[in-house]
Fold HTH luxR-type domain-containing protein.
Amino acid sequence: MLVLSQYVERSYALRLLDSDGGAGVGYLLKERVSAVADFTTAIERVAAGGTVVDPEVIHRLLRLRQDPLQRLSPREREVLALIAEGRTNASLAAHPFISEAAVDKHIGNIFNKLDLPVDTDGHRRVLAVLAFLRA
């Protein structure tokens, strides 16, 4: 399977590379596929069971892996910044831009995206703030 995409979609790229052990897959950016010979070579490589990944895709995947805060949406980063100020969920929900249900959703997403599982040895809220402060 060879994916041609206009953007680097992290979740799609990771899922594709993880499928079937990554054999016979490729992820190329449309804008960078201009040479017919290079494109044909990529198709042949994938058809033979190889893997082809655009260098920009690799660069962005590695950058995201190095900085887990890059996984957060702008709203999640904003919520995490308010948590780092010591605000409670009720205080966050008092802001006009967010409901209490949305606060819970954002915090859950933050924990997931920062790889802070429920069974962690530490307090996930504190660990999330520490990740934020390290950035």
